[in-house]
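As the work plan foresaw, our protein records have gained a structure token line. A representative record is set out beneath this paragraph:
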Amino acid sequence: MASRALREAETRDPYSSQPRDVDPPDAGRQLYEESTAMPDRSSHGSQLEHLRVRDCMHAGVLTCSADTPLVEVAGIMTKHRVHAVAVIDDTRRPIGVVAALDVVAAAIRDEHERVTARVATATEPLITISTDAPLDHAARLMTRHRVHHLVVVDPADGHPVGVLSTLDITVLVAENRER
């Protein structure tokens, strides 16, 4: 039992809630190869490697409980003009993310009136990241897991403190190119 816990600790990503990829998925998947490839640092390196998640994230996070009806979550998104809401448990720890695409998928199935946030997030694992994590690490996580939002957590207590989206990174890339 102790060896299993040690093995899990050794494979846990230090900045994220996700385990490291010990056994890579289908080796033919281009996405996996691109997301796990080491960046070319021979000349100037990635503009993301010198930044931390806290430098790019949106501070503050909109949350809901797991029992919140999906139509209410959609209302929160509309009111605050955001594309994702973090789902938290009774201890305020994040357990999922409801993204706008989850609302759209439920509407297509005509389930948006009876689905809760817990049901809408049940198919995707939650990926959290520390405020201290390198931004290039966050970008690789997003690419590898095909997600557009990471819940940013305080490394001290695990409570959500912000959200990092692919758009946040895209804006950073565009602003740096304009300089």
Observations:
- Residues 46-178 form a domain with the CBS-domain fold (CATH 3.10.580.10).
- The chain is about 35% helix and 15% strand.
- Residues 1-12, 18-45 have pLDDT under 50 and may be disordered.
- The two ends are 54 Å apart (CA to CA).
